[in-house]
Amino acid sequence: MIISDQELEVLINDVYEYYGFDFSSYSMASFKRRVDRLFQLDGFKSFPVFLSKIRTDPEYFKRMVEEITVNVTEMFRDPLFYKVLRTEILPVLATKPFIRIWHAGCSTGEEVFSMAIMLKEANLLHKSLLYATDISPAVLELAKKGVFPLRMIKQYSENYIASGGKEDFSRYYIANYGSAKFGEDLIERMVFSQHNLVSDRSFNEFDIILCRNVMIYFDKDLQERALELFDGSLSKLGYLALGTKETIKFSALQTKYSQLNKEKIWKKLR
Amino acid sequence: MEEAAVNNNFKVLIIGGSAGSLEVLIRILPQLTAIPFALVIVLHRKAGDDSMLEELIAAKTTIPVMEVDDKTPLVPGSICIAPSDYHLLFEKDDILSLDASEKINFSRPSIDVSFESAAEIYGSRLTAILLSGANSDGTNGAIAIKNAGGMVVIQKPESASMSYMPNSAIQNMVPDYILDVDGILDLIHNIVP
Ligand SMILES: C[S@@+](CC[C@H](N)C(=O)[O-])C[C@H]1O[C@@H](n2cnc3c(N)ncnc32)[C@H](O)[C@@H]1O
Question: InterPro entries of this UniProt entry (chain B) (predicted)?
Answer without folding.
Answer: CheB_C, Sig_transdc_resp-reg_Me-estase
